[in-house]
Amino acid sequence: MKDILEVIIKNLVDNTEEVSITEKSEAKSICYEVKVAKSDMGKVIGKQGKMAKAIRSIVKAIAVKENKKVNVEFLD
Predict the structure, then answer these.
(1) What angle do CA 69, 21, 53 make, to 5 degrees?
(2) What is the number of H-type helices and E-type strands within the chain?
(3) Could you say which DSSP state residue 44 is in?
(4) pLDDT in tens, 12-35
């Protein structure tokens, strides 16, 4: 899942070197913390958060197949 999330994020941003995704695992849930350059944050979140919602939906759809809960957080 982390690989797919990384591919999606890197294709949206200009500074691919500054993309970092950390994974925090618990029993049946995973939290991904996404950090990008400040100039790229708007591209990842999108207008009214639509891009962020779409990214979360894709990752959650993948997680359902693995019987896990996923949370994606975008950090400054």
Answers:
(1) 55
(2) 3, 3
(3) H
(4) 999 999 999 999 998 889 999 999
Give, to the nearest 10 degrees, the angle between helix 50-65 and helix 2-12: 160
Structural domain boundaries enclosing 26: 2-75
Predicted TM-score (pTM) of this structure? 0.88
Domains in the chain: how many in total?
Answer: 1
For residues 13 and 37, is the Cβ–Cβ distance under 8 A? yes
Tokens at 53, concatenated: 């919602």
CATH at 45: 3.30.300.20
Within 10 Å of residue 22's Cβ, how many Cβ atoms?
A: 12
